[in-house]
Design brief:
mainly alpha; 0% strand
Length: 527
């Protein structure tokens, strides 16, 4: 397929479009406000599409379709888990985040606590999440470039890292936003057309598609209990990670700052939720369509951990032209998400670590932009190395691990910071560190690393004392993080954190402009 000139033409057409967007954005990116938050000038409708673009990653189009193709109905656990996290963001997270913070979720957690320890701990958790999610995108993008151009996988990943570096280094959030908007529109259009082309083979009836899958591969493809998860506890753990991790993903939360106020941020989330839900319905049809029309064996033979199901289905039902379009859209999808993730990591290193910890808030605009660009290069190199190391992993599964880390490292401290007066600095720091470290340790001791990456036989390690059978650690790490935060808050006191809780609540509910006015008399809260 490396000689498919039409596919390569679509690929370069999209590259030209996105580089033009980057050039346009680079001429307008002069301050950290523009680099990290597009100056807060994005409209809710645009931001909703950009959020959908951020979230509809390689895991959504390629990973879930591949899992459904290989396992049937159970692959939808990823779609459902990711989707139900959005109401949590809408009703609990987005307004406090927009009214209290500036660039990162650590702004909110550190608002009434000691800045340096909270920001350092928050940076550790954020970078761990971003790197795991970057792995998923780099693996899928490398596999796609390998399929499209016939390049070796290693060079494919290097190419992706280089293009990503250009987007973030020069265009910042403005370029990333518009690349996401264009990519989300193309992705929705491609998904709709692909799903409709599949249904034309089954009289436009999803039920006939499912019946054909059941007839060809047995009733088990329409029943729960496949090999997507290793047992009921692993399924619950995965669901917890996807649901609460969604509400704590750094690159998603960062988009609350690209609009002018909290109302616009809420509308953005509402638009994004509708778009994401619609797309996941189409992915279900695409996955079963690939199962029936392409076959799990052909998908597995293409390599990439089953990630090539959607492109191969496009080739089957739409020919070379549509295959080229889907490949280009898939590449756009992953490249845009990689750029958003990188920008989130850069914001954490520059804003939280350098500006507020190293320079104690006194860094100039020029210095911050310089550090941001150095951090961009460092994260890009690390993403390339990790993408090469994790070749062959299913991207939806790898993305699920990132969400598991986010739900333990970021979610407990963020929720407690905005809802609980008693939270102290030591409790917040311990919660973030325990959530991050316990997640990473449990992942290392799980079959994900011991069997899939290190190649140890499962039978050999099942009886070793350190072996953890769960592939998804959220059911252990998130409650542990909450418990640590609550216990330490109850046994320690911090006068400033308690005294500024009401001020933070007023700012969360009224916004920064209204909250800065002289306080009105109010009754003392029983809380």
């Amino acid at each position: 397929m490396g000689s498919n000139t039409l596919s390569i033409g679509f690929f370069f057409a999209f590259m030209a479009l996105t580089l033009a967007i980057t050039y346009w954005a680079a001429r307008r990116t002069r301050t950290t406000e523009h680099f990290f938050a597009a100056g807060g000038e994005v409209t809710p409708w645009q931001n909703g599409w950009a959020l959908a673009g951020d979230f509809l990653s390689a895991g959504a189009l390629l990973g879930i379709a591949g899992i459904v193709t290989s396992n049937g109905f159970d692959g939808m656990i990823y779609s459902i888990g990711w989707l139900v996290g959005w109401p949590i963001i809408l009703f609990l997270i987005v307004e406090p985040l927009r009214n209290v913070g500036r660039f990162t979720f650590a702004d909110v957690v550190a608002y009434r606590l000691r800045q340096r320890p909270v920001r350092l701990a928050g940076a550790l958790g954020t970078i761990a999440v971003i790197l795991f999610y970057l792995i998923a995108q780099m693996v899928a993008t490398g596999s796609l470039i390998k399929l499209l151009f016939g390049l070796p996988y290693t060079w494919s990943v290097v190419v992706v890292g280089g293009v990503m570096l250009i987007y973030v280094l020069f265009g910042g959030m403005l370029a990333t936003t518009w690349v996401q908007v264009v990519k989300a529109a193309l992705l929705m259009a491609g998904g709709v057309v692909l799903a409709l082309l599949v249904l034309t083979h089954f009289d436009m009836s999803p039920l006939k598609l499912f019946a054909a899958a059941s007839e060809k591969y047995g009733a088990r493809v329409l029943q729960p209990g496949s090999k997507v998860v290793s047992g009921r506890w692993d399924a619950i753990s995965l669901g917890i990670g996807l649901m609460f991790g969604t509400a704590a993903m750094p690159h998603v939360l960062m988009r609350a700052y690209t609009v002018k106020d909290s109302k616009a941020a809420r509308l953005s989330i509402l638009y994004a939720t509708g778009l994401i839900g619609l797309f996941h319905l189409m992915v279900f049809i695409i996955g079963f369509g690939a199962m029936v029309l392409v076959g799990p064996e052909a998908v597995a033979k293409a390599g990439g951990g089953g990630n090539m199901a959607a492109p191969l289905l496009a080739l089957t039902v739409g020919g070379n032209a549509f295959f080229g379009f889907i490949c280009a859209v898939s590449f756009a999808t992953m490249l845009a998400v990689v750029a958003g993730l990188t920008l989130s990591g850069v914001a954490t290193l520059c804003h939280d670590v350098w500006t507020n910890v190293v320079r104690n808030g006194s860094a100039s605009e020029a210095e911050q932009l310089r550090i941001a660009r150095v951090a961009t290069v460092a994260i890009s190199i690390l993403a390339i190395v990790l993408g090469i190391a994790f070749e062959g992993q299913n991207v939806a599964f790898m993305a699920g691990l990132a969400f598991s880390i986010a739900c333990a490292a970021n979610f407990p401290s963020l929720v407690l910071a905005i809802t609980w007066r008693r939270l102290t600095t030591s409790a917040a720091v311990a919660s973030i560190l325990v959530g991050t470290i316990s997640s990473l340790v449990l992942i290392y001791l799980s079959p994900t690393i011991q069997v899939d990456i290190l190649g140890k036989p499962l039978a050999q390690i099942e009886h070793e004392w350190w072996f953890v059978s769960l592939r998804n650690p959220a059911i252990i790490s998130m409650p542990l993080s909450f418990c640590v935060a609550i216990i330490l808050s109850l046994i320690t006191t911090e006068a400033n954190a308690d005294a500024t809780f009401d001020e933070m609540q007023e700012r969360m509910l009224l916004g920064p402009l209204q909250a800065s006015a002289p306080p009105r008399p109010r009754a003392k809260s029983a809380a």
